[in-house]
Design a protein that fits this description.
Length: 152
C-alpha cells in the first residue's frame, strides 16, 4: 500500500527532529509508537474476528452437508426396508400358496365326479345322470342291469 523505504523514513525523522526539537521528539516517538501499536492490534482483532466468522460458516456448511447426507442415508434405508418388507410379504404369500397346494390334492389325482371345477381345456360333456344303484346287490352270475339310456 505505502511504499516507504529507509531513505523516506530518515527524511521524516530529520524533519521531526527539526520541527519538534530534541526535547519533545522522544515523547512524540512514544506517542506515535502507541498509535501504531493500537492500529495493529485493532487490525489483528478485526482479522481474527473475520477468520472466526469464516470458520463458523464453514462449520455450519459442513453440518448442513452432514445432515443432508444423514437424511439421504435415512431415506435410502427406509426405501430399502420397505422393499425388503414387500419382498418378505410376497415370499410369505408364495409360501402360503405353496403350502396350500401341498396340503390340497392335485385335481388330476381326484376322481372326475369329485373335481370342483371342470378343466377349461377339456371339451364340454353332456351331463349324464348317474344310474340308480339297486338296493339289493346283483346275484353272482346274473347279467348286469341294462340302461335304456344311450352311452356316447
Amino acid at each position: 500500500m505505502f511504499d516507504i523505504g529507509f531513505s523516506e523514513l530518515l527524511v521524516i525523522a530529520v524533519v521531526a527532529l527539526v520541527v519538534l526539537g530534541p526535547e519533545r521528539l522522544p515523547k512524540a516517538a512514544r506517542f506515535a509508537g502507541l498509535w501504531v501499536r493500537r492500529a495493529r492490534n485493532q487490525w489483528d482483532s478485526v482479522k481474527q474476528e473475520l477468520e472466526r466468522e469464516l470458520q463458523a460458516e464453514d462449520i455450519k456448511r459442513q453440518m448442513q452437508d452432514v445432515r443432508q447426507g444423514m437424511q439421504d442415508t435415512e431415506n435410502q434405508l427406509r426405501a430399502s426396508g420397505e422393499a425388503i418388507r414387500r419382498e418378505a410379504q410376497e415370499a410369505q404369500q408364495q409360501g402360503d400358496t405353496l403350502a396350500q397346494e401341498v396340503r390340497a390334492p392335485a385335481p388330476a389325482d381326484l376322481p372326475p365326479h369329485m373335481s370342483a371345477a371342470p378343466d377349461a381345456d377339456a371339451p364340454a360333456q353332456e351331463s349324464v345322470a348317474p344310474e340308480p344303484t339297486p338296493a339289493t346287490p346283483p346275484e353272482a352270475g346274473a347279467p348286469p342291469p341294462q340302461s335304456t339310456e344311450r352311452q356316447p
